[in-house]
Amino acid sequence: MAESGYGFDTLKVRGGYNPKDHNYAVSVPIYQTASFELGDTERVERLLRFDEEGYLYTRMGNPTVTVLEKRVAALDGGTAAIAVASGMAAITYTLFSVAEGGGRILTTPHLYGGTVDSFKRIYPRFGVGIDQVSDPDDPEAFRRGITPETRAIFIESISNPNATLPDIRRIAEIAHENGIPLIVDNTFATPYLLNPLKHGADIVVYSATKALGGHGNVIGGVIVEGGTFPWDNGKFPQFTEPHFLLRDESGKERSFLELAPTSPFTLRVRLTYLIYFGAVLSPFDAYLLLQGIETLSERVKKQVANAEKIVRYLETHEAVAWVSHPAAEGSPYRSLAEKYLPKGAGSTFTFGFNGTEQQSDIFINSVRLFSYQANVGDSRSLIINPPKTTHGELTPEELEFAGIPPETIRLSLGLEEPDDLIADLAQAFALSRSEVA
Ligand SMILES: *Cc1c(COP(=O)(O)O)cnc(C)c1O
């Protein structure tokens, strides 16, 4: 299918898939196979030289997974994508790809808890350094934070858990002035609300586990590349050096940039991290994600509407000290939301519980519709207390730095009736206030 020219909602149900290539199957088939017949010895040589497109072994690529990769790339306006087994694998493979061998990543305190933990405790053991700007709301802070070893800036387009927003375009400009790419975790926004590549980002990563899949039934991750970053600027020899897997007919080794000028990044992730570190997405999980993406716009639209209604409700409640969502009254992110997220700033956000810790626990234990669990973007509404769970490994100082005080409660809005959700919160607030004298 020619992808160009089609709108988002057409691509989300048809992108990356031509039924003619798959026995005219209407629904994308699940290629549940570990390996593929090679045909003959000449064909395998063509495949290994990249002279012919085809499949060898599912750790390197699989037709069901390919449809998912092409579809997400189309939805984000990227040149290519690669799917992996989780959002964490997508982040790690991406950041190691740019900073391997002693590089540093410049980031912010406004990040998913697993990302924070791995940055602090795991990356340094692999020789990848992490620097954090102290004021992520000031784009110039990123310019000041860049060192000669910095190999990328990494931000979340809508941050977990507080739904804060960075000025993507300005941060991208600062990155490019310094010869490094901007990498954006776009998990909360999804390609429906925001396409970071169109605002200057170079690489986009997803936890597809969340709103992209949208049904709380699969763990997955996707990396999308924009295809325009100049990897040959001298800072990234891994893309310009000859590589042992990229031999041509004469046996000469080529570079990733030579072989794939518009998709060197995802090809390198595939031939370095995916095939040797092995966090491969299963064909069945790719199928579930494709199924989820078919209704991405419809789901996210309703979830954003539900979130905005709940924000309005919480703002009026005496048991709520503050609400952190760009649509909240007096949010400092209003103008950035208008600029980057005209369809809404997502459906996951936090509020401060106004009461004792005991009352907060009663509130969480009393909700009946909101599921108490560490996930977001599900079709069901979810609740959690980040300081004790998703961000539980942060020290009190780090929690303060990240803007997550002890009273923080995170909500992820699902697809239920908003009135039922409000009634549920109301009865839980009432119980939390009546049971403690
Ligand atoms: C959940 C999440 C991740 C990690 O994704 P997994 O699929 O759980 O590995 C990364 N970034 C953000 C913003 C997340 O919410």
Topology, element by element:
Layout: H1 8-14, H2 41-48, H3 63-76, E1 80-84, H4 87-99, E2 104-107, H5 113-122, E3 129-132, H6 139-145, E4 150-156, H7 168-177, E5 182-185, H8 190-193, E6 203-207, E7 221-225, E8 243-247, E9 253-254, H9 256-259, H10 264-277, H11 283-293, H12 296-315, E10 320-324, H13 334-340, E11 348-353, H14 357-366, E12 371-372, E13 382-384, H15 396-401, E14 408-412, H16 418-434
Parallel strand pairs: 2-3, 2-4, 4-5, 5-6, 12-13
Antiparallel strand pairs: 1-7, 6-7, 8-9, 10-11, 11-14, 13-14
Helix pairs in contact: 1-3, 3-11, 6-7, 14-16
Bound molecules: pyridoxal-5'-phosphate.
Pyridoxal-5'-phosphate is lined by residues 86-88, 112, 114-115, 156, 160, 185, 187, 207, 209-210, 219, 221, 376.
